[in-house]
Design brief:
With 137 residues, this protein is an all-alpha fold. Helices cover 69% and strands 0% of the residues. It has helices at residues 7-17, 22-29, 35-41, 49-59, 63-68, 71-81, 89-94, 102-136.
Length: 137
């Protein structure tokens, strides 16, 4: 498939993605430029190399991106790499090979903390008893 890339349309796409208005792009290109001239530029199928390079620099994208971006190619890439989750497969995909229940693990950790606290408390009680006996002697 040897389709012609529309430079002007790509300039418009990148400009809009960057949130730059036509007036701002015109201002950056210099006093010879106006919003109307940018509108005409965005309608051109092919843009001269030097102008394309200037616009790319202002939009902070590689000139090659403007020259080669194809919406159809981008859609094909997305459609070939995105897999739709059917029949409630979303849940299993999100919990892929999850062999435990996180809430159970949380409860186990809380129980372990409780046991540690009880042992610490018992140890403190033993210390107090030892100190009492030492004071009595």
């Amino acid at each position: 498939m040897n389709e012609k890339i529309h430079h002007g349309r790509n300039i418009k796409r990148f400009r809009e993605m960057m949130g730059i208005k036509q007036e701002a792009l015109a201002f950056e290109l210099g006093e010879d430029w106006s919003q109307k001239k940018i509108s005409l530029l965005e309608q051109k199928e092919e843009v001269e190399e030097e102008l394309l390079r200037q616009v790319a620099e202002i939009l902070k994208v590689p000139a090659e991106a403007i020259k080669s971006f194809s919406e159809e190619t981008a859609i094909n890439i997305i459609s070939n790499t995105f897999h739709d989750f059917k029949d409630n497969a979303t849940a299993s995909a999100l919990n892929y090979k999850c062999s435990f229940n996180p809430i159970d693990k949380l409860i186990e950790a809380l129980e372990e903390n409780k046991k540690l606290y009880e042992r610490l408390l018992e140890s403190e009680r033993e210390k107090v008893e030892i100190m009492k006996r030492m004071l009595e002697k």
